[in-house]
Amino acid sequence: MRVVVLAGGSGKGLAPLTGGRPKVLLKVCGEAVIERVLRNLVSIGAKKVTLVTDKPAEFEDITVRFGRLLEFEVRRQSSGGIVGAMLEAKEELSNGALLVYGDTLVSAEAYEMTYAAATEYGVPTLMVVPEEDVRFYGAVFVDSRGFIKRFKEAPRERIEGAYAFGGIAVLNKELVELIERDESIESAVNGYVASGNAVKTALWSDWWVDVGYPINLLEAIYYVMMGWETMKIASSAKIAPTAVIEGAVVIEDDVTVDHYAVIRGPAYIGRGALIGAHTFIRPYTDVEAGAIVSSYSEVAWSLIGEGATIGRNTFLGYSVVGEGATVGPGTLTKLITKPEEVGIKAIKVVKRRKEWYKIGCTVPAGSKVPELSVLEPGEIVGD
Q: What is the pLDDT of residues 294-325, one digit of tens each?
């Protein structure tokens, strides 16, 4: 199986966290988003990957580490946008390669399902998902047999009855030529269908996360940890005898967990991180490598980036802290709260940044939050 992975762009919605680097390099539970995509591709038997990005040098380490599993060809994107990225691999896509958006997290079965549908029907196939708000993904209108009637790339309003494009597809030569000619996926798909050609959909109804905004990282943490069942503690980790660790907690090498700290899983503590005395790490918290959560702090369902520091006596809830950022001592995260829901709905009412049960703040990479700060819900904070 040949695969084309689009991995360019820092993402406007994630700019405070990426610092200009490709957003697919952001880490969730110790692994970059793109690494999770590549592991899924390996698991379904992919052998060759054409990786398209505007910053090839950023992927040298990943291509080396995956080099024994996948044959890579890295291509620099010369023109902007999704269409520009696709056309860098137009030959592969014309010959039926699997197209994968590198910022989309989903289980490996979604790739298999889409590729199988394209093979069975012998026509271009787009994976679609039932999404409450399609404005961020493209709206796909589907007939009763599962074929596309119409595609709208960037709808300005919510559309009832439409599916969202899920970032996985198989195309063909004719459709790729139309995309190149029209410089638009919407125009190409609609023109192709209007000419009497068929485009099939593969409906995916399990979990799916398009990583475009900080809140999506919290979603990703939830779904990644959802399948964890056992506790894993590295032999080199230093766990104080009075610390309490419960549930599916992953603790990597050289972590220190100080006296009377409580870590309640599922949770991830990355290599070399420090969890201070009397600190409470609540479920769905991701503390990346080298990060510090100082004593008497509480962290709930948050991502703390590599090398970040959370000051003493801080409450951080439903928030994302960028790499190398510092949150001063005594900081309090205020939350939007409504009656509690279970599972993923604990952080959202309507998917994709509309109404939230709970939402904290975003601390940009490398920034500093002064001590004793009170952080407002949804705020981007730090100097």
A: 999 999 999 999 999 999 999 999 999 999 99
Confidence at 133, pLDDT banded by 50, 70, 90: confident
User: Are 327 and 310 spatial neighbours (Cβ–Cβ below 8 Å)?
Assistant: yes
Q: Nearest-CA neighbor of 265 among 233, 220, 297? A: 233
Q: What is the CATH number of domain 214-375?
A: 2.160.10.10
Q: How crowded is residue 119: how many other Cβ atoms within 10 Å of its Cβ?
A: 11
Name, in order, each residue with C-beta under 8 angstroms of 58's C-beta and a sequence gap of 6 or more. Answer: 21, 22, 25
> Which residues share a beta bridge with 285?
267
C-alpha 274/C-alpha 313 separation (Å) is 15
Q: Which residues contact 369 (CB under 8 A, 6 or more apart)?
A: 325, 326, 327, 328, 331, 363, 375, 381, 382
For Cα atoms 120, 223, 70, give the angle at the middle one, nearest 5 degrees.
55
CB-based contact 301:218 (threshold 8 Å): yes
Give backbone dihedrals phi and psi of 363, rounded to 5 degrees, phi first.
-110, 115
3-state secondary structure of 16: helix
d(CA 200, CA 119): 11
Burial class (CB in 10 A: 0-12, 13-18, 19+), 121: middle
With contact defined as beta carbons under 8 Å apart, do 328 and 373 qualify?
Answer: yes
When computed from its CA atoms, the radius of gyration of the chain, rounded to whole angstroms, is 22
pTM of the model: 0.92
The CA-based angle 154-100-364, given to 5 degrees, is 70
Torsion of Cα atoms, 340 then 342 then 348 then 352, to 10°? -170
Name the 3-class secondary structure at 299.
Answer: strand
Q: What's the 3-state SS for 57-104?
A: HHHHHHHHHCCCCCEEEEEECCCCHHHHHHHCCHHHHHCCCEEEECCE
Strand partners, 172: none
Token match 């994968």: residue? 100
Specify the fold of 2-210.
Answer: Spore Coat Polysaccharide Biosynthesis Protein SpsA; Chain A (3.90.550)
Spatial separation of the C-alpha atoms in residues 88 and 367, rounded to whole Å: 36
Token digits for 270? 């990355």
Helix (H) or strand (E) holding 23: none
Domain boundaries, the chain: 2-210, 214-375
> For residue 11, how far is the Cα from the chain centroid?
12
